[in-house]
User: Fold these one by one.
Assistant:
Number 1:
Amino acid sequence: MKPLRIALTKGRLEKDTVSLFEKMGFDCSAVKNKGRKLILPIGENQFEVILAKAADVITYVEHGVCDLGVVGKDTIMEHGSNFYEVLNLGFGKCKFALAGPKGKDFFNGYSAKTIATKYPNVTRNYFESKAMDVRVIKIEGSVELAPLLGLSDGIVDIVETGTTLKENGLEVIEYLCDISARLIVNSVSLKLKKNEIENLVELMEKAKEDK
Amino acid sequence: MKKYNKITPEGTKDLLFEECLVHRHIEKTLSSVFSLHGFNEVITPGIEYYDVFNSDCSGISQEVMYKMTDNHGRLMVMRPDSTMPIARLTATRLHGLPKPIRLYYTQPIYRNNPSLTGRSDETIQTGIELLGAQGIKADLEVLVTAIEAISKCVPNFRFELGHAGFFRVLSQQLSISDSLREDIRCAIESKNYTLLNSLLDTLGDSKEVTALKTLPKLFGGEEVFNKAAKYFTDEKTSDMLEYLHKLYKSLMQLGLEDKIIVDLGLVQRNDYYTNIVFSAYAEECGDAILLGGRYDNLLESFDSPMPAIGFAINVDAIVKILLSQNRDYSVKPADILVHGETGFEIKALNYSSNFINQGIKCEMSVFETKEQAVDYAKIRGIKQIAVVGNNIKKINLE
C-alpha cells in the first residue's frame, strides 16, 4: 500500500502543519531540512508530504494525485470545489474584508463601483449576493495600491491585523467571513483509504485541541 | 489574424492508435454485457434543444452546457448528459411500448469545464437505463449489471451504495428556507463537519438535526447500517435504510465483501436521483468511474411519468487506467506487405484480398521499386513481403 500523500501550502501553513505533526509524535526532520526537495517523507514513511502553492494544493487533491491537503479557506473559496473539507485546523486565521479609503461612504451613490482584488471569484460572489453590479479588476500584489492610485473604489482582500490598511489610509468597510487553514481530502481517497485517513484526521483533531 | 487551425480546443484531444484500440475494446466488452442482459442500443442526437436539459430536476447548470442557436434562433446545446435525452425519447417515441424498456448507449457528452483544470470537455460514456420498472428486482438487476460491467474492465474497483432520500426527507421535516437547505446540502456534500454543525446548531435540537449532523459520517462497510439505525427512526427513513441494507446483503451473495461500501451522505448527485444512488471507484482515478441511481420523477417532466433507474460509465477514465497499467496495447504491424510490379496493380490487389478475407492483416506497397518496399517493411516491422509480377515471390524479413 502506498503511503498517504499530503499536499501542504508552502510557507506559514506548512510550518504550522509541521508543528502539528510533531505534536502528534511524527518525525518531521525531513521537511525541516528539506533543501530543494518537494516530496518528503514524514515519520517512518507513514506518509509523504509535498510542498506546493496554495491553489496547486487544491488542484493536486481534486485530481487525486494527493490524498489530502492543507490549504487556507481563502484559496478554497476562490478556487473551490470538488473535494471533502473535513477539518478546520484553527491556524492561519484572518478575515476576508471589503476595504476602501477612510471616511468615504462606499455604499453611497448609484454609480457602479470598481473593486481591485487578488480574489475575483470571491469578490464576484460577494457582490452577487448583495445584488450589486461591480467591476472587478484582478491585481497580483499589494492590492492596497489600487484605490490609492485611483484605479478602484475599494478592495477585497484578506486582513489579519489591519495595519497595512491603516498605514495607507484605508479602512475596513465590511468583513465577508473568517478564514483559517482547512484539511481537505480527495473524495475517492476518503472512500478507498477510509481507515487510514480517518485515523489521521482524528489524530490531527486531537493534537489541535490540546494546545 | 491568428488562426487556430493546428490545435484542438481545450478539453478535447485526438485519440491515436492504442488509445483507439483500448477504447473500442472497452466499448465492445461493455456493449456485449449490456446487450446480453437484454438491453437495446440507442443513439441520441449530439445536439438537442436547451429545453430538454432545462427542467427543474436536471441538475445541470447552464454554464457547463455548450450552447448555440439553430436557424430559427432557438437555443441548442451539445448533449451534456445522456439520461435526459433517453428520458425524452422514451416519453415520446417509445410511449406505447410494453414496459419495462431496456436501453443502452455509448456516446460522448459535452461539458464546458473551467479552463486550465485539465478536465475533458468531451467524455465518452456508456450506460444503461431500465425504464418503467421499480422494486428490488429492477434495482438488483441494474446494480449487478453495473458490477459485472466494471469488473470486466477494472478488476480492482470499489462499489458504493447510497440513497438520495435520506437528506431529502430529513431536510423536508425541518421548516427551513431553500437557501439554508442548499447550504446544509453543500456542507454534507463536502463532509465539512464544522460548517454543518454551525448551520444546524441554529435550528435547535431535534431528531432530524442530529441525523443530519451524522449523515456525512455514515460511510464504510456494513457497520454503517447499525450506526444509522439509531438516527433513522421515523417510518420513511427507516424503510429506506432497511431497503438499502437488503440490497447490500443481496450484493454480498456475489462474493464482493471487500468491494462494496456504503455512504449515506451522498447528496452531490444530479438532482434527478430520487432513490438509491451508486458509484464505482478505482485507485488510479480521482473521480468516480461509474455513476448511477434511480430517478422516478424525471419522466414526469416529459409528461410520461414512470419509474426508471440507470447508470453511466466513464469510458475515457477506464481507458486511461488500462493504458497506465503497462500492459502492451501497442498497435501490431501488418502481417504482410504486397508489392505489385508496374502493370500488375490489379493482380496485386486481388492477391491481397485473399489474405484480407482470411483475416490476415495486409498492407499494399505504394512504392516504385521492390527495394523501397523492403526498406519500408523493415521500418514498420512487417515480417513478410509478397512481390506480385508475372509470378508471385515471397520474401521473409526475419
Number 2:
Amino acid sequence: MKTEQVDWLHAHFELSLARLCELSGLTETDLRELVECGAIAPADPLAREWTFSADRLVVARSAFRLRKDFDLDPQGLALAIALLERVRDLEEQLRDLRARIPGGGV
Amino acid sequence: MSGVGGGYNSGSMKYKDYYAVMGVERGASPEEIKAAYRKLARKFHPDVSKEPDAEERFKEIGEAYETLKDPQKRAAYDRLGSHRPGEEFRPPPDWGKQFGDGEFSFEDLDLGDLFSAFGRAQGRSVRMPGQDYEVTAHISLEEAYRGTEVTLDLAVPDYDERGLPRRAQRSFKARIPKGATDGQRLRLAGQGGKGVNGGRDGDLYLNIALRPHPLFRVSGHDLFLDLPLAPWEAVLGTTVQIPTLAGSVQLKVPSGTRAGQQLRLSGRGLPKPHSGEGDLFAIVQIAVPSAASERERALYQELAGASTFNPRGHFVEAVK
C-alpha cells in the first residue's frame, strides 16, 4: 500500500489567494469580503498579491460551509467566523491552563 | 460494490426516513422543512456544535434536507413509500429512470448518494469538484514525537463512467511527520471524493488527536508533568530522574522549592514542525506520606517545635 505524504496546515506555509479559494470552495469575491470584514487576515495586508498562512484554510473551509449551510450574508458570516475564532482561542487557553494544573484539573 | 446493469431497478436498498431525521410530518410544508433544518443545523453543524455525534448527525440532516427541499427530489422520494429506517426495500418499477437510463442495480446503493446524483443525469457535462473529507487520526504522544503512519479506511461516494453513484472502499496509509500535536490539521491532496467531468479530486483533511498519556499533559508543543517531592526534598533540594519522551534525564531541584513551581527542561517537549522543540515543565507537588512511623512523627514534632516558619502569615496581613 502506497504511503501518502501530507501537507501541513500551519503558519510556516503560505497559500496564494487563488489556491486558498480553490481549496476552500470560496470565490475570490467571498474571500475578499471576509478579509475586508476582518474575518480572515492575509499574511501581509499591504502586499500587492495577498498570501495566507496555511492554517487559514481551516477558517476558510468553515466559512464556506457555514455560508452554504446557513445562507449567511457576508456580515453575518464574518461575525460567526470571528466568534468561532474566539471560541478556539479560549479553548486553547483552557487546554493550556488544564495542562498546567497538577493532576490536569480533573 | 454497486453494480451496473442487471436489469431495471434490480436489487434492494436500505430505507432512510428523511422526514423522521428532520423531525417533521410527511405532509410538512417547505417552510416547515426549512425551519426544522435551521434549528437542527444550529444544533449539529460540525463547525459550531460540541455534540459528540455532530458530524454524523449533520450529515444525515444535510442529506435529508437536500432531498426534501427540492420538489422534484421530494416527489421521487415520496414515491418510494414509507418503510422502517434501515429496512431493505425495492423501489417501484422504472423508478430508477429519473437517474438516467434507469438500468442499474440498487444493490449496496446508498439512498443519499442516489439523490445527490439526481439532476446530474440531465446535465452530465457539468464540471464538479470531488467532495472533501475530514477524518480524526488518534495517535499516541510517542507516535507524535517520532512521527508515524496511520492506515485510513474510508467509504467514499464515487461515480461510474455514466455518472451514477456508487460507494467505493478506499484504504491507504498516510505518513504523519514528527511535529504534529493535538488539533493539528494536515491535508492529503486529492484523496477525497473523485471529481466529475474533469473537476478536481477532493482532499482529505486529517485532524490529529493525541490520546491521553498517563504522565504527560500537552499544550501546543509543550509537555507538563507532575513532579511529587517529599517535604524534605523540597526544603533541602535534590536531584531526581525525570522521564522524557527521549528517555530519563536528571533534574536538579533547588533547595526551598515550593509546590506549584514549574521547573523547565528546555527542548524536552514535542518537536515543532518547522524547527526547534517545545519544553517540558515539571510541576512541583509536595507529597505527604499517608502513614508515618513513630520515629517519623517524633522527628516532625521536633521540627514543629524548632521551626518559626508560618505558611499563613499573609492571612493576618490581609485582614488587618
